[in-house]
Amino acid sequence: MGALTDLPPGSRATVITVSDRSHAGVRPDTSGPLLASLLADLGFAVAPVVLVPDEVAAIVAAVLAADADLVVTTGGTGLSPRDVTPEAVGPLLERLVPGLAEALRLDNRGAVPTSVLSRGVAGTIDRTLVVTLPGSTGGVRDGVAVLAPVVGHALAQLRGGDH
Questions:
Q1: What is the total count of domains within the chain?
Q2: 119 CB contacts (<8 Å, ≥6 apart)?
Q3: Residue 22: inside a domain
Q4: Residue 94 has pLDDT above 50, yes or no
């Protein structure tokens, strides 16, 4: 994946990994560092990965503390009882971007039929685009592949650029 040529200058990204096990040190975080690397490859200046447990308050605090043009979470979008990322992020979003969330679910469903079970959301908070991805490295790779061709245009629009 090459650098994204239409990314606005100075674009910053924050990655938030949502995982009880990684937060507790039981399992290493693999999806967050991968996501940060892929976003850097697109041309983003990426802050250090933030790691939080599957708790609404912790997720909300991390999203609201992010100082970035793009905030992407990984983890907590499934059907498990502790998967609460959509419940944490959804109420924070001022404007939904349902087409992006739908594209993220449907992009690789032929190879990964369970991708349609993701409850991920996408939207904006002020001039920040917020996207919630699954916690698997495959879900992160697929998600960035969907974001890559559109994120530059989205961020330009959030900055007040032309349609």
A1: 1
A2: 77, 78, 79, 83, 86
A3: yes
A4: yes
